[in-house]
């Protein structure tokens, strides 16, 4: 897998490779979006340059908040974005 690829990341919610990761280096954030389910998040990226790093952080965030704390994507969009 290309660590810089924008599309085709495995979505932890719907289990398909429908996620895209769009890095905005100027704003130091990235948009993580699934074209099949309701995941659509902006996360802080510090100085990451590769999408695979963002993807790893997103997966951690997903497991930590959605699976363990039973939050929803909507909660995350409201600002529960701490890693
Ligand atoms: Zn999905």
Tell me briefly what this model is.
This protein is an alpha+beta fold and about 80 residues long.
Description:
This protein has 83 residues and is an alpha+beta fold. It has a single domain (7-77), classed as N-terminal domain of TfIIb, CATH 2.20.25. It is built from 2 helices and 4 strands, in the order E-E-E-E-H-H. It has helices at 51-68, 73-77, and strands at 7-9, 19-24, 29-34, 40-44. Strands 1-2-3-4 form a 4-stranded antiparallel β-sheet. A hairpin with a 5-residue loop joins strand 3 and strand 4. The longest helix is centred in the C-terminal third of the chain and has 18 residues, at 51-68. It starts with 6 loop residues before the first strand and ends in a 6-residue tail after the last helix. The mean pLDDT is 87.
Q: N-to-C terminal Cα separation, in Å?
A: 24 Å
Q: What is the percentage of strand-forming residues?
A: 15-25%
Briefly, what CATH class? Mainly Beta
Q: List cofactors, ions and other ligands.
A: zinc ion
Helix content: 25-40%
Shape: globular
| Count of helical stretches | 2
Largest sheet: 4 strands, antiparallel
Number of domains: 1
**Average pLDDT metric:** 87
Radius of gyration (Å) = 12 Å
CATH topology (fold) name:
N-terminal domain of TfIIb
Using DSSP, what is the number of strands?
4
Element order: H for helix, E for strand: EEEEHH
Report the structural category. alpha+beta
Q: Record the strand order, biggest sheet.
A: 1-2-3-4
Q: Spans of 5+ residues with little confidence (pLDDT < 50)? A: none
CATH architecture: Single Sheet
């Amino acid at each position: 897998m290309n660590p810089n690829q924008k599309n085709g990341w495995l979505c932890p919610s719907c289990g398909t490779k429908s996620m895209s990761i769009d890095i905005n280096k100027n704003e130091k954030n990235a948009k993580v979006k699934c074209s099949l389910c309701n995941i659509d998040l902006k996360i802080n990226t510090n100085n990451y340059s590769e999408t695979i790093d963002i993807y790893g952080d997103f997966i951690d965030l997903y497991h930590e908040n959605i699976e363990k704390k039973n939050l929803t994507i909507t909660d995350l969009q409201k600002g529960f974005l701490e890693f």
